[in-house]
Amino acid sequence: MDLIPRLLAGESPALARAITLVENQHPDARELVARLYPHTGQARVIGITGPPGVGKSTLTDQLAVRFRQEGMPVGVVAVDPTSPFTGGAILGDRLRMTRAAGDPGVFIRSLATRGQLGGLSRATGDVIKLMDAAGRRLILLETVGTGQAEIDVMNYAHTTVVVAAPGLGDEIQAIKAGIMEIGDVFVVNKADREGADRTVAELEMMLDMAPDRGGDAWKPRVLRTVARDGTGVDEVLREVKAHWGHLEQAGRLQVWRRRQAEFELAGMVRSLAAARLLEWAHQTGVWAEVRDRVVERSLDPCAGAELLLREYREAFGRRAAKSPGTAGRRGEV
Amino acid sequence: MSDIIRVLVAKPGLDSHDRGAKVVARAYRDAGMEVVYTGLHQTPEQVVEAAVQEDVDVVAISILSGAHDVLVPRIVNLLRERGRGDVLVLVGGVVPEEDIPALEQAGVARVFGPGSRLEEIVEFTRRCVRGQG
Ligand code: B12
Ligand SMILES: Nc1nc2c(ncn2[C@@H]2O[C@H](COP(=O)(O)OP(=O)(O)OP(=O)(O)O)[C@@H](O)[C@H]2O)c(=O)[nH]1
Ligand SMILES: [Mg+2]
Questions:
Q1: Is residue A170 predicted with pLDDT exceeding 90?
Q2: Cβ contacts of A98 on chain B, cutoff 8 Å
């Protein structure tokens, strides 16, 4: 895999191709990520989330330009929804990132959700790792315009910025119900529009009502911006950095890293374990037996699943004595 | 190969006619492709940088300003310089008949003028990308 040295040297075409392999679940992708993983963990990730059209991409663009001015190599991951009907997507975030897009020091990659719920693409975690390994020290992660349950971004971002805008109406309710808890920084963008004061007041009130997290816990603030002309963006930058400062104290970063590792590990266990079990059950015919008992009503689906697990454990115990066993094989998905 | 085809729809130069670009972008999306649209007034350098970063299979250039003779060969050459000479380059918009051979000579797979059928554009694109793959 000659991609790896080129990617580690920061070459854009190599990084771009690696991302494609990961997105397409190419057979080489697993090993690629495994070999690059030791080179990751350096980057800061800022998540940018909020309802559709509030100015997430425009704000991301402005932040990218400022981090570049500080000499940081920047990566942007921008996620847009895949059409559930055609499987296609128009990835329009880059359209609003014209300031940063002119600078080869900013690597922008648009991803489609490809059926994944949660506001991100399934490949997001790996794409961040690839950018990290390629030396992008600052990564901006823009989610799809969120409804309310799309909180996956908090599992990847050190700092989550929740963006709102005046005149949202119902969408403010959605923020209250869903993404209020995940924001470290709140931004009311389009402050040039009427109603900004009210939106700021609403968000501040919600934050005041949030349960007290203790004396030295981070207290999110509500800032206002006009991302289109850059007004207030420096203040957002300062607030994001203040949040980093906070995260770096009292062992919080280590706590964050553990939580992040657990999120990814648990996700992998869920998908690998389920895939293995299903494959085994189909191959051995146990699946069909259990299914038929569920059809006959002699087992309910939950009891059926437990039976499958039990049978798998027994079969695996027997086979493990003869062969190295599935758990011993590495690099296999 | 079931990998999703990725297309960059580009509008280089000072041309502001964007209807065609948007119509074609939508047609590609409806055909199950992922389309990155860069917006108006892009330099050839910006178009190629976007094509590299987005790792697209196709660069679809829409141009109605008459500047195709300069902008298009520049984009093709920059793609080659960046190691992406494999990208399928298509051009659409208003291009006089007599200019087409030169563009094809430069590396453009085909030029689609006004009135081109969207199904044909999609079909041609798919055939070229899959054929190469
Ligand atoms: C509508 C229009 C406008 C609108 C544009 C609105 C907009 N936002 O797009 C307005 C009124 C703003 C406009 C302005 C001007 N226009 Co005008 N305009 C047209 C007109 C009548 C139709 C273009 C159009 O939208 N067609 C509908 C779309 C869907 O068709 P299309 O773009 O051709 O796309 C199809 C194919 O070409 C192809 N396709 C297009 N792109 C791509 C890309 C790929 C990759 C593929 C595969 C296929 C593909 O697929 C599409 C579907 O079949 C054309 C004349 C014509 N008949 O083409 C003149 C025309 C393009 N305009 C012209 C001119 C001169 C101007 C102005 C300079 C006029 C002026 N003096 O002010 C300004 C310049 C604006 C600017 N800064 O660029 C000239 C260009 C001459 C030239 N190239 O040498 C034309 C050809 C008229 C003429 N015969 O003189 N214009
Ligand atoms: N008036 C005003 N308009 C803005 C401002 N910031 C962005 N916009 C406009 O709002 C529209 C949407 O901006 P985007 O940055 O694409 O918003 P987004 O949240 O990324 O949108 P999605 O990704 O589609 O959810 C664009 O037309 C922007 O030009 C602002 O501060 N004031
Ligand atoms: Mg956006």
A1: no
A2: 39
The alpha carbon of B64 and the centre of ligand 1 are apart by a number of angstroms equal to: 5
The predicted structure's pLDDT at residue B1: 38
A interface with B, Cβ–Cβ below 8 Å: 12-13, 16-17, 19-20, 24, 82-83, 86-92, 94-95, 98, 101-102, 104, 107-110, 112, 114
Contacts of A57 in chain B (CB under 8 A): none
Same domain flag for A313 and A219: no
How many domains does the structure of chain A reveal?
2
Q: Which residue among A247, A275, A304 closes a domain?
A: A247
Integer angstrom CA distances of residue A45 from A115, A183, B45: 23, 14, 28
Break chain B into its structural domains and give their ranges.
Answer: 6-129
| Residues in the ligand 2 pocket, defined by CB under 6 Å | A 52-58, 93, 96, 145, 189-190, 192-193, 226-228
Q: Who contacts A111 (Cβ-Cβ below 8 Å, separation ≥6)?
A: A23, A77, A78, A79, A80, A91, A120, A121, A123, A124, A127
Query: For chain B, what is the radius of gyration of the CA atoms?
Result: 13
Query: Which CATH topology does B6-129 take?
Result: Rossmann fold (3.40.50)
Dmax over CA atoms of chain B, in Å, equals 38
Scan residues 86-125 of B and list those with Cβ closer than 8 Å to A.
none
Identify whether A329 is part of a domain.
no
Domain that holds residue A288: 258-322
Which residue has a Cα nearest atom 46 of ligand 1? B92
Same domain, yes or no: A300 and A241: no
Q: Is residue A305 part of a domain?
A: yes
Q: Name the residue with the closest Cα to ligand 1, atom 7.
A: B17
Look at residues A247, A281, A301 and tell me which one is the last residue of a structural domain: A247
Mean pLDDT of A24-38: 94
Q: What is the pLDDT of residue A328?
A: 45
Task: With H, G, I as helix, E, B as strand and everything else as coil, classify residue A228.
Answer: coil
Q: Are residues A204 and A69 in the same domain?
A: yes
Ligand 1 centroid, distance to B17 Cα (angstroms): 5
Residues above pLDDT 90, as percent of chain A: 68
- Mean pLDDT, rounded, for A276-298: 94
Shared domain check, A266 and A156: no
B114-124 burial code (b ≥16 CB/10 A, e <16): eebeeeebbeb
Residue A202 has pLDDT above 80, yes or no: yes
> What residue's CA is closest to ligand 2, atom 30?
A190
> Worst-scoring range by mean pLDDT, A95-104, A117-126, A172-181?
A172-181
Pocket test for ligand 1, best of B17, B71, B90, B117 (most atoms within 8 A of CB): B17
In the prediction, which pLDDT does A66 show? 97
Q: Are residues A309 and A202 in the same domain?
A: no
Closest by Cα among A113, A115, A181 to A142: A113
Q: pLDDT at position A320, please?
A: 53
